Amino acid sequence: MKKIILIVFLANFSLSVQAEWVLYATSEPDGNEYYYESSSIKKLPNNKRRIWEYLNYANRINESKINSIKGYIELDCNDESYKLLQGTSYEENNLKGFSKNFDVDPKPVFIAPKTVRSLLLKVACK
Q1: Residue of 38, 62, 16, 60 lying closest to 126 (CA atoms)
Q2: Cα-based distances in Å from 49 to 1, 26, 74, 81, 88
Q3: CATH number of domain containing 119
Q4: d(CA 70, CA 86)
Q5: Residue 13 belongs to a domain
Q6: How many domains does the chain have?
Q7: In whole angstroms, what is the distance from residue 53 CA to residue 39 CA?
């Protein structure tokens, strides 16, 4: 009986900790979809934020097996720049299938106005 209760508890717990991904942009004309995890926004000193985001490619990249990418990024709300801290690629859309971590360059990158990343900056820095 204790095993059944534990299994039910763990099943309910795992469902409650699933990420809530919010679609914030669809690029044109390629149709790529951009999401962020609403509960992952962390405020840091110096008006910085850290957030999980992911991208669903409408078409595979250069014949590769990558259909979606998840990244942990740090946004600088003052300088309007970002750094990619961690990245993982997936063979299927919606972060499914075989996954592989990839090397990141943690140098800050300026966020140009009227880009997908500028939309995320507005959401995270409000």
Answers
A1: 38
A2: 45, 22, 6, 11, 20
A3: 2.40.128.710
A4: 8
A5: no
A6: 1
A7: 11
Domain, as residue range, for 41: 19-125
The answer to whether the beta carbons of residues 56 and 67 sit under 8 Å apart is: yes
> In 10 A of CB 104, how many CB atoms?
14
- From CA 89, how far away is CA 79, in angstroms rounded? 28
28-86 confidence digits (pLDDT tens): 888 999 999 999 999 999 999 999 999 999 987 667 789 999 999 999 999 999 999 99
Q: Is the peptide bond before 29 cis (omega within 30 degrees of 0)?
A: yes
Q: What is the largest CA-CA distance in the chain?
A: 59
Q: Are 10 and 2 in contact (CB under 8 A)?
A: no
pLDDT score at 62:
66
Q: What angle (nearest 5°) sits at the alpha carbon of residue 40, between those of residues 38 and 100? A: 110
CB atoms within 10 A of CB 83: 17
Asked if the structure places residue 12 within a domain, the reply is: no
Q: What global pTM score does this model have?
A: 0.80
C-alpha to C-alpha distance for 124 and 119, rounded to whole angstroms? 9
